[in-house]
Amino acid sequence: MSENTRSRPQRGRDAQVSASLSLASLEIRARSACERFSTNSGSLIQSMSKLAVIKTGGKQYLVSPGQKLKIEKIETPVGKEVVFNEVLLVSDSKDTVIGTPLVKRATVEAKVLSQGKHKKITILKFKPKVRYHKKMGHRQPYTEVQIKEING
User: Fold this and answer.
1) HEC states along 18-64?
2) Contact at 8 Å (CB) between 10 and 29?
3) pLDDT tens-digit readout, 1-40
4) Of 23, 41, 96, 104, which residue is the least packed, with the fewest Cβ within 10 Å?
5) Angle 137-143-145 (CA atoms, 0-180°, nearest 5)?
6) What one-character DSSP code corresponds to residue 9?
7) Over the stretch 50-80, which tens digit does the pLDDT of each residue have?
8) 0.85 cut: is pTM over it?
9) Are 91 and 97 in contact (CB under 8 A)?
């Protein structure tokens, strides 16, 4: 076999076509999520018409104004405002802006409601036939925030 059968990274026009297809599918998903959100929340849609995807603590969150969520711990005192600059997507009922990788000049403002720890999880190590077992626990710290405003 003289020809290599492994797949190679796409180049040129093929890469542009696949990138545009993935961006189009992402935009369709964002619009359908916005429509689902609007139909599920009923009368609240007037105040929650914007959606954004933010990145914090190594995770991505789909947020809307007024929403409360628990994120990885950030060092901001309770009651203070925090601004998330890493915005990956901003969508409203009319259009969707997808970042490459971030949306320029887009921010999400939130207020810190509380700092806390999640429920304890137990870790159990066990090796058979050698009488080895070890039990440990862990409580992951979190910060609870309420989304105030989506700019951009």
Assistant:
1) HHHHHHHHHHHHHHHHHHHHHHHHHHHHHCCCCEEEEEECCEEEEEC
2) no
3) 455 555 555 565 555 545 555 666 666 766 666 565 554 5
4) 104
5) 150
6) P
7) 899 999 999 999 999 999 999 999 999 999 9
8) no
9) yes
